[in-house]
Every structure is written in C-alpha cells, then in structure tokens.
Amino acid sequence: MASALQTLPCFLRTCQLSPPPRPSISFPSSSSSSFSRTSQSNGRFVSARVKASSSSSATAADVRELKDGIAEFYDESSGIWEDIWGEHMHHGFYDPGTDASGSDHRAAQIRMIEESLRFAGISEERAKKPKRIVDVGCGIGGSSRYLAKKYGAQCQGITLSPVQADRANALAEAQGLADKVSFRVADALNQPFPDGQFDLVWSMESGEHMPDKAKFVNELVRVAAPGGTIIIVTWCHRDLGPSEESLQPWEKELLKRICDAYYLPDWCSASDYVKLFQSLSFQDIKTDDWSEHVAPFWPAVIRSALTWKGFTSLLRSGFKTLRGALVMPLMIEGYQKGVIKFAIITCRKPPE
Amino acid sequence: MRLLTHNMLSCNIKGVTNGFPLRIEAEKVVEKQLEINHDFLRNIFPKIDWKAFSDASRIMGYHELPEEPPEPSVLESDAEFLGKFHHALLELHLEEGALICPETGRKFPVSKGIPNMLLLEDEV
Predict the structure, then answer these.
(1) Contact A156 B112 (CB under 8 A)
(2) B114:A191 CB<8 A
C-alpha cells in the first residue's frame, strides 16, 4: 500500500497541471483608511493599525477561479470524507501528547465544537443561549446540526458547493432537524442575509478559503446581532516577528504547495484577525493557538487514506481529491516546523 | 426551500437597499409532512416578517393564512391556526423556481430545493 502511494507523486509530477493563480489577501490599504481607532479589549486600551498587504490585489477572475475550484473540490471530495470520517469536516481536539492510534476521532471532532463554544463563553442558559446561528462554510452541515440540537436553535448554513448543500439538507431531514437547519449555496464574502440576524456566527475551518480576509470579517460582523458572538476556528500561519514583513521564503513555498491542493488563497496569521476585530471596536477579543491540540489529526487522516477502503475510494474520487490527499504530509510538516498554526479567534459584537 | 428560510434571505447586490423580501417564482412546490412543534412555532412567530411570509405562502399555492399577523395570544389557544402556520412555514417546499430581488429583478435560481445566492463579479 505504502509503495503504491509513493509511485503516485511521480505520476503527478509528469502530468502537472498548472495551479490556479492565488489571490493575495487584501487588507484595507493604509493610504485610504488607517484603522487606528482605539478599542477596549480585556480592560486594556489597544491602538490597532491594520497592515496593508504588500503584494498585488486579486483580480476578479482569480477570485472566480478560486471559488469554482473550492466548489469543485468539495463537490468531488465530500462523499469520500463523509464515508470514512463522518459528518464533521474539521480537526479533532485532543489532549496534548495523545497518540493518533486508539483515539476516538469522531469524539474529538465533537470536542472541538464544545471547546470552541467554551472558549467563546457561550451560555447554555435558556435566556442567554444562541437562538439564531449562521454556519459560514458549513460543509455537509455537521456543526449546524450539532449546534441546532444542542441549543434548540435555528441554524442557517452556507457553502459554495451544491453537492454539500444537498447532502447537508438530506442529513438534516434524516436526523429530524429539518425544521431547525437549512443550507444554501452562497458566498461567505457576500452573505444573503440582512444585517444583525444572528446571535452566533460560526466559522469552523472555512476562513482559510477566504481570499479577502477583511471582507470576510466584515461580513461576519455585519450579520452578527448586537451582543452576538463570532467564533472563527481556522488554519493560520505563525505570527510574524516585530521586524518581519512576511514569512521566510521556505515557509511560503511550503504553504504554496498546500494552497494549490486545497484551493486556499494566501494565509494570514491569527493576530491579523485580531487586528481586524480591534479596528471594528469589538469587545472581548480572544485568541489561542490550539496547534498542540490537533497534532494527532493529520496522521490519523493519512492512516485512514492508507486503509484499503481509503485507498480505493481515493483512486475512484478524482484528481482533486487525490492531490489533496497527497499533500497531507505537508500539513504535518507545517505544524511540526511551526509555520502552520491552528487558531481560534472569538469576540462579541458591542450591544446596541 | 421552506418559507422559514425564505423569510431570512435577502439580496445583497452592491447598492441594493431594498433586498427583502425576495419575490418567489414557483415552478415546483412540494409538500413534505413534518411533526408539529407548538413551542417552536410560538418562539419563531415574533421573528417572522408576517407580510412577506403570508404573501409568499399564496404564491406557493396556500391561501389559508391571514394577511395581517394575528395577536400572539392566538398562538396560545388556536390549534387550527397553529396547524396552518406550521404547514405554510415548514411543510411547503420550493423545489424548483427562483427568488427575485425586489429592487433589481435579479433571479436567484432554486434547484432541488436549494437556493443559489452566489453573486456575479459585477454585483459585488
């Protein structure tokens, strides 16, 4: 099995398709609007300035191609993921130092949701618990259904993938949650909801797909109700040092190879997100690095790919899925070398 | 797509100020039974834009809802009304059709019950 997998990268190198051009992140440029509003965060006054991106901004065609790529990737890959890993398309949360083998990964994925809610301080009290939730980048709706069931809340999910939306709705019907959750094809950067709709805005491992982080955050903020909570759990690169303008070339090269396979635009750091929220006067901005809590995940995914079922399913699914699978060791390398961080960022929108 | 969902969707094409409610073009409406939950209906009632909801229900072929929203006390006592509310909100599904922006006329297709709200480049 392992030797067969080793020959595949050779096959891929000879028939390399040109990767899609990646849009760079665009932050508000410092010439037009320097966000230096002071905001109160955890009792300290912090003055924030959002750094402008030094690279060129994405063309509309680049973004279109990225979104099509994302939709096609998940249209192609969702089925096989669900088959082997179930309805949650996100990392599991483990105690540090846990071994991948013998871990209950599906329980770990549930724990990831619970730990995120706990970190954000979401109340389970009847009066304070969330009643309207949006799941941004909902996959096949695992989080939506879990949250709707947990809080008895209404949950709307959006995804770029029609196959995922369809599957998410079907699973909701099957689980008797059809009155509480619904899913549609929509763009996280242009959410089809009026302002201030949701008391919990949930983005579980979808932020890494967003080509314009500032616009992404602005949309999350727009649809959040006053006093509502935003939770982002996402892949980031490490925070830059005080004298650094960007990552080292070898780090960028590593991320580039991952981006091509997973249809990701340029990465940002967790503190980039924090600065965006600070510039919008948000309260209780919290962030943490959970990289050590997700370490067993990628080895476990690789192991599942190398089972007979995993391997044959991969060969059947298509080029995009296969390429995604082959890039998994790079995720492990990225985490081990401290380039990739698994981050949570939460905050509360000021009440009216 | 249920009318519960329709009541939460709006068009956010750049520059549009009046993107709610989306007008429904119904090609195929399907009825799917769902167990009624009175508490849920009472909780969701204050959040529903009634005019948009009752107009939409008529387009979907259901004419039993009043045009004006009832008093909340009706939901406590009137089982027949609750049944109609439940049916229109949760049991009518737009399988095929479109949602139309009231300001620009832009059509968002609904296919297999799933609305596609993706905007084009020039609408963003």
Answers:
(1) no
(2) no
Q: Identity (one letter) of the amino acid at A267?
A: W
Which 3 state secondary structure label does DSSP give A186?
A: coil
Cα–Cα dist A166/A185, whole Å: 9
Contact B114 A185 (CB under 8 A): yes
The whole-angstrom separation of Cα B89 and Cα A305 is: 43
Indicate the number of domains in chain B: 1
Enter the ipTM. 0.73
More confident residue, A100 or B12: B12
pLDDT value of residue A102: 63
Instruction: Please list every residue in chain A whose beta carbon sits closer than 8 Å to the beta carbon of residue B8.
Output: 156, 193-194, 197
What is the Cα B115 distance to its own chain's centre? 12
- CA-to-CA distance for A271 and A236, rounded, in angstroms? 9
Helix, strand, or coil (residue A29): coil
- Contact residues on chain B for A132, CB-CB shorter than 8 A: 47
Domain extent at residue B94: 3-123
**Six-digit token pair at B91?**
């049991």
Give the pLDDT mean for B58-81.
93
- Determine the 3-state secondary structure of A162 from DSSP: helix
Q: What is the pLDDT of residues A40-59, one digit of tens each?
A: 333 222 222 233 333 445 67
Of B1, B20, B40, the CB nearest to A179: B40
Q: Are A107 and A146 in contact (CB under 8 A)?
A: no
CATH of the domain at B64: 2.20.25.10
If you average pLDDT over residues A251-272, what whole number do you get?
92
Question: What is the Cα–Cα distance from B50 to A46, expressed in whole angstroms?
Answer: 44
pLDDT digits (tens, 9 = 90+) for A177-213: 988 999 999 999 999 999 999 999 999 999 999 999 9
* A60, A62, A68, A73 alpha-carbon torsion, rounded to 10°: -150
A112 and A93 Cβ atoms separated by less than 8 Å: yes
Nearest CA in chain A to B87: A179
* CA-angle at A212, arms to A211 and A215, nearest 5°: 140
Is it the case that residue A37 has pLDDT exceeding 50? no
Give me the count of residues in chain B.
124
Per the listing, tokens 């540090």 go with A96
Q: How far apart are CA B99 and CA B26, in angstroms?
A: 9
Collect all residues with Cβ–Cβ distance below 8 Å to B78 and sequence separation of at least 6: B70
AA letter at A337? K
Among B7, B36, B38, B116, the residue to mutate for chain A (most A Cβ within 10 A)? B116
Q: What are phi and psi of A246, to 5 degrees?
A: -160, 175
Asked if residues A88 and A143 have their Cβ atoms less than 8 Å apart, the reply is yes
Comparing alpha-carbon positions, the chain A residue that sits nearest to B117 is A186
